[in-house]
TrEMBL record:
Protein name: DNA-binding transcriptional regulator, AcrR family
DNA-binding region: 38-57
InterPro entries found in the cross-reference section: Homeodomain-like_sf, HTH-type_TetR-like_transc_reg, HTH_TetR, Tet_transcr_reg_TetR-rel_C_sf, TetR_SbtR-like_C
PANTHER family tied to this protein: HTH-TYPE TRANSCRIPTIONAL REGULATOR BETI, HTH-TYPE TRANSCRIPTIONAL REGULATOR RUTR
Native species: Amycolatopsis sacchari
Coiled-coil regions listed in the entry: 65-92
Lineage: superkingdom: Bacteria
Gene Ontology molecular functions: DNA-binding transcription factor activity; transcription cis-regulatory region binding
Annotated ranges, domain HTH tetR-type: 17-75
Amino acid sequence: MTDQKPGTYGTQRKAAARNRAAIIEAAHELFAENPHVPLSEVAKRAGVGAGTLYRHFPTREDLILAAYQHDIERLTATADEVLERHRSAKKAFVEWFETLSAYVRIKHGLGDALHSAAAQDVIAASWAPTTAAVKKLVDACVAEGSIAPGHDPADIIMLMSFLWRVADDDEGAAQARRLIATVFSGLQEAPRPL
């Protein structure tokens, strides 16, 4: 038996959930600035002690994976909002993929932490929601006439993967715009097997 008052456990769980969310949000922000940021800085930004951070995320890899998963979940949930914000489905499509590419660039900067078996499980789990979000964008583009019907969203993700390979500077942005124009030119035709 414990001496805890009724409701204390529930209060502790809520505080733990808030701390976990604050740590993940801080990691999201700081990893974007510097993938090698010390975890003590993440704890400081989250407003928690190092012990609290390590209780939730025993290793750096655990935190990296949680931040990555959180980012992808947040992005996949925005497809409808991005479509609502733009009159053009094509512009929404481009904005959404640019945001995805920024997340992937951060992921690539996190190196070895995202090559473990646990990381591959997290990345694989993100595939279905990402594909579903892309399907919404593609369907809107088909309805608008900027993409022909019949294109597979998974194929389009692979095609758009060039975005996270271009340089993250003005020259890379110009190259990305040229490549996006080429992609949309090709997507205006129905897919056909070779």
